[in-house]
Every structure is written in C-alpha cells, then in structure tokens.
Automatic annotation (TrEMBL), chain A:
InterPro entries per UniProt: COI1_F-box (IPR041567), F-box-like_dom_sf (IPR036047), F-box_dom (IPR001810), Leu-rich_rpt (IPR001611), Leu-rich_rpt_Cys-con_subtyp (IPR006553), LRR_dom_sf (IPR032675), Transp_inhibit (IPR041101)
Pathway entry: Protein modification; protein ubiquitination
Lineage summary: Eukaryota, Viridiplantae, Streptophyta, Embryophyta, Tracheophyta
Organism from which the protein derives: Salix brachista
Annotated coiled-coil segments of the chain: none
Name listed for the protein in its UniProt record: F-box domain-containing protein
GO biological process, one term: SCF-dependent proteasomal ubiquitin-dependent protein catabolic process
UniProt GO MF annotations: auxin binding
Transmembrane regions listed in the UniProt entry: none
From TrEMBL, chain B:
GO CC term, one of those recorded: nucleus
Assembly and binders: Homodimers and heterodimers.
Compositionally skewed regions (Low complexity) per UniProt: 26-57, 181-192
This protein's UniProt keywords: Auxin signaling pathway, Nucleus, Repressor, Transcription, Transcription regulation
Organism name: Salix brachista
Name of the protein: Auxin-responsive protein
Biological process (GO), any one: regulation of DNA-templated transcription
Amino acid sequence: MGPNPKMRKEFFDSTRSSPFPDEVLERVLSLLKSHKDRSAVSLVCKDWYNAESWSRAHVFIGNCYSVSPEIVARRFPRVKSVTLKGKPRFSDFNLVPENWGADVHPWLVVFAAKYPFLEELRLKRMAVSDESLEFLAINFPNFKVLSLLSCDGFSTDGLAAIATHCKNLTQLDIQENGIDDKSGSWLSCFPENFTSLEVLNFANLNTDVNFDALERLVSRCKSLKVLKASKSISLEHLQRLLVCAPQLIELGTGSLMPELTACQYAQLENAFNQLKNLSTLSGLWEASAPYLPLLYPACTNLTFLNLSYAFLQSHELESLLCQCPHLRRLWVLDTVGDKGLEAVGSNCPLLEELRVFPADPFDEEVIHGVTEAGLLAVSYGCRRLHYVLYFCRQMTNAAVATIVQNCPDFTHFRLCIMNPGQPDYLTNKPMDEAFGAVVRTCTKLQRLSVSGLLTDLTFEYIGQYAKNLETLSVAFAGSSDRGMQCMLEGCPKLRKLEIRDCPFGNAALLSGLEKYESMRSLWMSACNVTMNGCRLLAREMPRLNVEVMKDDGSDDSQADKVYVYRSVVGPRRDAPPCVLTLSEVDEASRCDGSPTNQNPSRYELPSWPHAPCRTGLRWAGFSSLRNLFVVNAWEHCVS
Amino acid sequence: MSSIPKEHDYIGLSESPAMEIISGKLSPSSTSSSTLSTVEKNNGSSGSKNNNTSLNLKETELRLGLPGSQSPERKPTVPAAGVSLFGKDIDTSNANAYSLNPLKNLVSGAKRGFSDAIDGSTGKWVFSDSNGSEVDLSKGAVLFSPRGDNGNPQKSRVAGPANKDFAQSPKSVQDKNGQVAAANENSSAPAAKTQVVGWPPIRSFRKNTMASSLVKNNEDVDGKSVYGCLYVKVSMDGAPYLRKVDLKTYGNYLELSSALEKMFGCFTIGTLSPPPPPHSPSFTRQCGYHGLPARDGLTESCLKDLLHGSEYVLTYEDKDGDWMLVGDVPWDMFTDSCRRLRIMKGSEAIGLAPRAMEKCKNRDERFAHEAFAWKVYKIVVFSE
C-alpha cells in the first residue's frame, strides 16, 4: 500500500465508507483509459478495486490463456469493449501449428451471457471460425466494432454474417488474416438501410466485390472516415468511391495498375483533389509511375503513408515525399533503395516511424534493397525518428552507432539483417557493438529485435542498459547460456521474450524462474532446451503454463518449441495433441481449473503483484538444477 | 520449335518446352517433354559427359545460395543439370507456381543459346577461375540463407529463382567450402535443411502478396514495363552474389556501366589495373569489330585496355535466349530485349557473337557462330 496510514487502515476495514460516494469515484475512475493505470488504481484499496472494476469499459487481455472468460466477467461486470490476443507472435511466421488453439468461441459464449451489450471486439492472432462470427453477429445487438488482425480460420461467409446482422456496426477492420476468400458477395449483405459504417477495411481480400453495392454503401454511410479497399478495386472504381466520400480521413486505394483514358485520369485527379482531410494513404498495389501524380493533391495533410505494397523506385518516392510535408509515419518497400531513403531523410523532417520491408526477401542470391547507408541517411534527416523496422542485407556496427546517436529517442528498434548470423560486413566482427550502442543511447527503448552475428556480449549490454525494454526478439544469436541469463537478470520491465535458433539450454531457461511470472510470455524454439528442463520449470513454477511442441522426427528429449506464460487458470484443456502441456499436478488429480480454487487476490488483471513467496520450494528446485540431466521419476502426465 | 529438340537434346536443353510451360503455353513437342521428364528424373546426369563434368566443377564454384540450391548462373554452363533443375523445379512447383515467379522465368529459356555457344567452342569456358570463389564470404554471402516457411512452401520456393533446385548440389559446395560453414553461426541447422522456416520474419499475407506482385512485375515479356521498372539480374563471374538493376533508370550504356562498376568494382579479380578516377568513362570501351561502328556512348576500342589485364566482358541474354555482347544495338532496343546481364571474363567470351543489327531470326545461326573466327569483343567494364 502507499505510505498513507489512513489508506492502509481503510484497506483492512472494509466497513468504513469511502471518502467519496461510489458513484463519484466510479465517475472519476471512468476517465482513466490506460489499463496500466487502472490496474494500479485497483490495488489501492477494496473500494477503489470495486469502483474500478465497475467502471472499466474496456479490458485488454494480452494472452487469452492467462485467464478465463468467466474470471474476466466476474471481475469486470460492465465491459463494452474487449481486446484479445491469442497465439504467440511467431505464429505469424508459421512456427506454430495451425490447430494450436486460441479459439475465440468460448469467450463469445461467456460474453453472450455476461456482456450482452458488448460493442467492440478486437482480436489478434486468434482462431476465429465462421460459426463464431455468426454467433457474434446474432447475439450482440449493440455490436459496433470488429477488428481482426492476423487471425485465421474464417472465410468471407463469416463476414457475410456480420454484414447481415450487425445493424449498428461502425467498424469492420479485416487485416492480414488467414482468411478463406471465397467470394466478394459478403459486401452485398449490408442492408440497404444500413448507414452507420465509419471504418471499412477489406484490403485483406482479393475476390471481387460487387462494386455497385460498395458504391451505394459508401454513399449512404455519411460518417465513413476510413475506407481501405482491396486490390480488386480499380482506379475507375476508386474515382467513383472518392466522389461519394470526400470526407475520408484514411484511404486505402485499390490497384493503381489498370490503364485510364485521359478523361478518366482527369476525373480521378479531381476526385483526389477533393480529399482535403486525408491523413493516411495506403494500398497502392502495383503503383506505377504514371499514376502516382494523381495522389499528390491528396498528400498535403498526410501523416501516414503506407507504400509497402508499391514497387517504387527512388525518384518516384522522392516526388511523392515532396508532397507530404507533415509525414510522421512511412512504410516502404526496399525497392526504393538507399537513394530513396536519402530522399526520406531530405524531405521528412517530422518523421517518427519508418518501416522498410523487403520486396524479394527469399532471393538470397540477389543483393539489392537497402543497406546501412539508407538508414543512416534517414537518421541524419529525421531526428525525431523513434520507431524503425528495417530489413536489410548488410549492416555495420559503426552505422548503427551513428544512427542512434542521431536519433536517441528510439522506442522501437527492429533491425532484421536478413542473412542469419551475418557479421559487420566491413569489419567482419559481430554486431554486438551495434546493439550495445542502441541500448546505451536509447534509454526509452521498449522494443528491440536483434539480428546478425551476435555473441553473449550483446546480451550483456542489453541486460545492463535496457532498463525500459519490454519486448525482445532474438534469432540466430548468442554463444552460451550466459546470453539468455543476462537478458533475464537484467531487464526489469521485460514482458515478452521470444527466442529462436539460439544456443541457450536448460540452465538459461531455468535462470529465469523468478522472472517469468512478471512476464507475459517466453518463447524458445530451436534452442537447446530439453524436456527435463521444461518439466523442472513446470514443477518449480506451478503458476506458469509450460507448453512444448515437438518437431517431426526430433529426439524425444528435445523440447523443440517451448512456450511459457503465466496464468491464473492453470494448464489449458484445449491443447491439440501436438502441444504438450507440462504441469506439476498430475492429470488425474488436477483440479478442474475453476477459478474458485484460486486465491482471489490473483484476480488482479492484468497487473501482477511481485512474485509471491514460494522461495522455499524454488530454492529446493535450484539445488536440483545440478541434477538436471538425471532422469527424475515424474509422475505427471502430459496431455 | 519442333526443329529445336534435336539440338536441345544434345545439350540436354529441353528447357524450351519447360520455358513454354512456364509461360503458360503448351509444349508443341511431346518429344521434348519426354526428354524433359527424363532429364528431370536423371537429375542432371543425363547424357553428355560435358554436363557431368560441368556439374562437378560447378559445384566447387562458390555462390550465394541455399544449400541444395543452384544458382541460375550455373545454368548456361550446365545445361542438362540446368534443365533437370529447371525441369525439376517446374515439376515440383508446377501445379501452383509455374506462373509465379518474377525474373527467374525470364532467365529460363535462354540458356540454350548460351550453351550452344559454349559447347561449340571450347566446351570448358564455363568456369571462371575459382579465385572468385574465395571471395570473402563475410561480405554477406552466407550460403544458408533462410527460406520461406511451411505455410507457403510453393510460393516461397518460387519466390526465389525458379531455377533453383533445392535438392541439388550446393550441399557439396558447402562441404568443399568449410569456410562457409564457419562463417555462419548457425551452420548446424541450415546444413540439414534447405529452408529456414519463418525467416526473415515476414507475415504470410505480405509474403503471398509480394510473391504474386513480383510475378506480375516481370511477367511482361515484351519488355514493355507496365509497372515502371525493368529489373534484370546482373551477375559477375567470381562474385559471390548477384545484383538486380532496373534498366529503366539508365539512359544509355554509359550510365549502365557506371552503375555496374559501382556495384561490382570491388570484385575484380585476377590482375587489376589501376583504378580510374571515379565516374570516369575510361573504363568503358568497345573494340570495333569488322568496322561496325560503336554506338550509344561507347567509344572506340583501345588495345591498351586489353593490356590493363583485367578484362571483363559485359554480356546480356536477350528475349530469344541468346547471349550477346552489350553495346551492339541502340539503347532502347537493348532495354527492350535484355533479360539479364552477365559480366564474364573476356577469355570466356570467345565465340560469343556480337549481335548484328540485322540479326537473323533463324536460331540455327547460333551454331554457325562458332564456325566463324570472330575476334573477341571486349568491353572493359572495370579497370580498378
């Protein structure tokens, strides 16, 4: 508790009334938006805990298996908006089997009972089926906002259900999902009297939609602010849409490819001229030089330009950038080359975020794209840069050191040198000093992805300096267990650690015993961790779920993929056969995971008090570390 | 095309049917197809002894590429292997992806012309001196470059050069080049696999979109680039990696040479001549031959260039699959027909014919070339 003895007394004396009426307290607390703040508030005292839980309208669940929908519903009775994240991030790169889990349906079933007035659902990396989408559409009459990012398991039929039944829908945002794109007819399912749409993003889809239906939809939805069309929308279509919706703030064009007549070109030019409020421009599939100037009039107020699907060259990019004096975020393909990035440095003094994606990442024979020179040029011109995602084929320590010297405010530094384990190409040395410079200089760093040839020294630096680091991605790096130990011992705010193809073994894994409960999750794949190490971890830390996935044909003792996360509900019951959930509790005698068996104080979500006092057992566990590789007589079953 | 197969069989160049398959047309000749499939099965060991020898020697040449992958570079010199690789690739990725794949398709059918030239002449000029293979690997030439992922095995394969066959040789390259293994931290895993799952970390949606866009970008075989760029691969004998250049960004041969010199200047091997001043045109020369006038910015030849000792010839593969010396035709015609570029050692360019303005469309002429005693055209691209 705080230093205030009065508060402390109140905490223990629940009969004493709060200084404020509950309503006032709730009203005040409802103004808090950040869930971190809210979690802090809920720890002050029982009254505040209650007031906060009654006033929380939006709940964010970073790991759907850390808690159950029942617990959430009991804890926060009046939620209108839920954000739910499921699979580990490496599932985006096909490292996680398809049937891994993270099914949204059980959540929907509980929500239908407990949150019938749910308005918003944002899902990331969840398994979503058409049945679930239909269930959602039918059971929540007030439903307004649906956002699906990097989900899979559904098809356009599910979208049709949403369009058909959600009379109050304001946002439909479908991004980068593994969607079964059967047909575009879903869009025609919006009823003719449906006018509430404000956000429509179907850039994910390829099949043709009925354009007339789309045009009518856009015309009648006067509040439409965001329209991100799919590739199937031609320039001609685009022109008609823009005429209906000059109020757009965010636009995703369709394909810029098809030929236009002079007359059509002029019309489109006019249409873009009308878009005075545009702050985001994306899409631009197959953007080709002749049509880029069309965009110029709409660029005056642009703050976010997403060219990551447009194969532009440097001079084309430059011409476009000259039109965007207020640009804050820029996503490009590496076809623009270092020269294009020089243009970024010259033309975008307000730039805060840069993402450079590889156009041809799997063609290792060909060296093209961007090098250290490009990012260097950007750093000289864009001193406010704080977010970078950079795919390149060569990098040097010196360049990175200069880059962070120019831009010390980095909060997100994601550097991907595409050849694994590649050293500084000039000095042939490891890239340790590069990332050392990053963590030393960028004190606000929250997210870091490392690449290139890296020894344990990199991780010593990270552990020593990266005091605000929350998310760390490591691949093909490190020399020994010490590397991982440095990370775990050093970074006090570490929440997500994902590691692949590194020489870290059981000692490294187990050095984090005290750490994992303060983290959301740990992923380790293709490292040197064994089943025994994982079992030991599971035994020592019963409130961690330790899940192991094995690759085909691998040694029985190897733990090929390990996913460790904290949870109040114990090992999950929906794991497919390929996922082994390790638990200290024998399968037969395991409690059914019902929340009533749990310590109520564990319900604080999503903040977690400091690691509890299980020191006794843990230290006993440490002594058995020496016997790591001695086969113990484990009784537990793995499911 | 029906007259071709016979010649192609000799060199094992049944690619033409393959090429046609790739571009979506049916092979007119079932004979060719069956030859192709035979070659596929034999996996490079079909027929010609030359091919076998070539294959082995080829394997020692250091290239950037996955273990098991075959650089397209090798194709011209190892036709049978090229075919089989190529064919094999067609075979495996045919169902899904033969229409996918960018530049690689462009490279495909052309080999036969080149090979014809080779076989007719010395028969061994394929292999640039292996000095080149010792180029410092740390310059980014890691063999175990990661590959696509389980989710899109077809696509990611195709997203690489179609000519690569992951089952093919460079495992042996790997063996012979221990330094490669050493250079790579992660030598254990990729040595066994040919693809690294999920690396580089790019979401499937983006990968798929890029793959299909890249195809469209370069599918246009007329040379008319709808998308505003015309990327062609540029390789240099002995260099560990290739570059891609967009021919649209250059206005003439001079600009192209400048750019190539910048890209590849560091790789000149063998005897080197003193570096020219930066951006000077002094490194670009063309010897006139038989009185054909130099064109488009190329100046008259100087024998002294030959004496510089570092002689590289810039050649290109045209639409018809023939390898030509760069500089013969007007720039626009060149960009229209050029499909890839290769900087080869002058000594290996023997027999490579310049392209006359009135190029005869009769493909049999290719063989006639060897019968002539052409002087060697030298375009000295790099002299530093």
